[in-house]
Write a structure and sequence with these properties.
The complex is a heterodimer of chains A (279) and B (248). Chain A has 279 residues and is mainly α. Helix content of chain A is 88%, strand content 0%. Chain A contains nine helices and no strands. In chain A, helix 6 crosses helix 8. The radius of gyration of chain A is 24 Å and the shape is globular. Chain B has one domain: Rossmann fold, CATH 3.40.50.300. Chain B has ten helices and ten strands. Classes of the chains: A mainly alpha (279), B alpha/beta (248). The interface between A and B is medium-sized, with 15 and 23 residues.
């Protein structure tokens, strides 16, 4: 068997077949990627079309703000606190080496506000909100609840998708702002574990280091994070197929794609901020 | 003969529907007359559910014409379609109850579009209670769908499809997955509500007991076409082997 295997590998025909199969697979992946990207673009275009029509579902929007915002608050708060604390404790020895320990609050605040808090918050939301939307809408789709909504005269896209995407777009920036505040408080405790910096001095140094160029772009990008998380979660749920297996797959892919989108948006935001001279 | 003197309430003409290479409905035509209970009988995958979803425009037909309550369903604007759908109740095979809402909220859901805020404030509670009383489940009004048995879910779903007092009720396999006793109860309930609301019903089923109880007329859907159209009694005595295999 081993000899047959080795002889096959020396056969040019074997490699020709292998290469053809790999090219076919890559073509399939390419087609899938472009098909998915196209479908998602159409879904996003439909979102703007439906959102611009009159008669919004305000009650459902407020309910979704509660579900998406309030119910993610604890998770974001705890993570942000640990993030601020750990970042401060980890950065301290390096700054100490350069005799720049007094720069610790300024360094921590800029790192947290500009990058770490928004991105980590968005990733947590991608996990919790993205998977939640994918699974919820996916199970509604496979159990014909979306069809039932349509039959009852309700526009399911407007009722389910527009409200959830808008709630995510509004709530992620609020959660991110809150994460900024909590993580900076964690940083204060971190600074005081080994050293001593007064409450007033700490916050003075934090705000002194921050400028509008740090806060505003980071806040703006969180709206895009929220929108991406909402649209990806809803798209994956709405296009769910193949029963319960499909629901699971929708939830998983919603998290993966939403997380990837967060990084891509972050990369674009950094480039735009850099181009505008806000760095 | 009486039905022939009436104008059909639903007319399906030369309907074609394919999913890829699978030609599900082939030049299918039928008429449903006011007040009758029409059962569509066929094997699983024969296109029965596709047919009633085409009637309510949940699935768009490739070719053909569907006229419901005098309106050609394919040419309607969204608002017109929503108004028409208010006159058509639909009982889904999976019940399709909104699992994040209570029974009350499930029943109130169709009212939020078709009734004004004032109408809802004045009459929603009474309408919900009446629909639940009709199916004998008033005591479940504040329960969640997960707390109900299969038969109870089916009854609540039926109550939801009755809330707007529809002129036509479409049933997609109403007794599938139920035990014979519950299945018989649901079938009898369907006949009762049909009489009370003076509605016309199109029932998709392959449950012979349900068909015997509910049907005035049966259409056999075989190979995407209308293979036979007669009463249950006549079809059950047929010598045609393709019809006989359903009744043996």
């Amino acid at each position: 068997m081993i000899l047959i295997g080795i002889s096959q590998r020396w056969n040019p025909q074997f490699w020709a077949i292998q290469t053809t199969e790999q090219v076919k697979y890559l073509n399939f992946l390419d087609n899938q990627f472009f098909k998915e990207a196209g479908e998602m673009s159409r879904f996003t275009a439909r979102f703007f079309k439906e959102a611009s029509k009159p008669k919004q579902e305000y009650e459902e929007f407020i309910h979704q703000c509660f579900v998406i915002g309030y119910k993610t608050l604890t998770l974001v708060g705890v993570t942000a606190f640990i993030m601020g604390l750990v970042l401060t404790i980890q950065s301290r020895p390096t700054l100490l080496e350069f005799g720049a320990e007094s720069m610790l609050p300024a360094m921590v605040s800029v790192s947290l506000v500009r990058e770490i808090a928004p991105v980590i918050t968005a990733l947590i939301c991608a996990g919790k909100i993205g998977s939640g939307l994918g699974a919820e809408l996916g199970s509604m789709k496979v159990t014909e609840q979306i069809d039932a909504m349509e039959v009852s005269g309700t526009n399911p896209f407007k009722y389910l998708v527009v409200t959830r995407v808008m709630a995510a777009t509004l709530m992620v920036p609020l959660l991110s702002s809150l994460a900024n505040a909590i993580s900076l408080y964690g940083g204060y405790l971190g600074v005081n574990i080994r050293g001593h910096v007064s409450w007033h001095l700490y916050w003075f140094q934090v705000f002194d280091a921050l400028s509008f160029g740090d806060v505003i772009p980071s806040l703006i990008k969180t709206f895009f994070f929220g929108f991406a998380i909402g649209i990806v979660g809803c798209y994956k749920g709405f296009s769910s197929q193949k029963g319960t297996e499909g629901v699971g797959r929708s939830a998983t892919t919603a998290v993966i794609v939403a997380s990837l989108m967060v990084f891509i948006i972050d990369l674009i935001a950094v480039q735009v901020t850099d181009l505008l001279g806000l760095t | 003969m009486e039905r022939l003197s009436k104008k059909p309430i639903i007319e399906v003409r030369h309907l074609n529907k394919s999913f890829g290479d699978n030609h599900v409905l082939k030049d299918f035509s039928m008429s449903v007359y006011p007040g009758e209970n029409l059962v569509i009988l066929g094997k699983s995958g024969s296109g029965k559910s596709v047919l009633i979803k085409c009637i309510i425009n949940l699935i768009q037909a490739d070719e053909g014409e569907i006229v419901v309550l005098g309106s050609p369903i394919q040419g309607l604007e969204q608002d017109e379609l929503d108004d028409l759908r208010a006159k058509v109740g639909f009982l889904f095979q999976s019940n399709a109850l909104y699992d994040s809402m209570t029974v009350r909220e499930n029943l109130e859901f169709p009212l939020r579009i078709h009734w004004t805020k004032e109408e809802r404030a004045l009459g929603a509670e009474a309408a919900v209670k009446e629909a639940l009383e009709d199916v004998g489940l008033l005591h479940t009004i504040d329960r969640m769908p997960q707390e109900l048995s299969g038969g109870m879910k089916k009854r609540v779903a039926l109550a939801r499809s009755l809330i707007l007092k529809p002129k036509v009720i479409l049933y997609d396999e109403p007794t599938t997955g139920l035990d014979p006793i519950t299945s018989r109860e649901i079938s009898q309930l369907m006949v009762r509500v049909q009489k009370k609301y003076n509605a016309t019903a199109v029932i998709i089923s392959h449950d012979l007991n349900c068909i015997e109880i509910t049907s005035d007329r049966v259409i056999m859907l075989i190979d995407g076409t209308c293979y036979a159209d007669d009463t249950f009694e006549a079809l059950s005595k047929s010598t045609d082997h393709r019809i006989k295999e359903f009744f043996t």
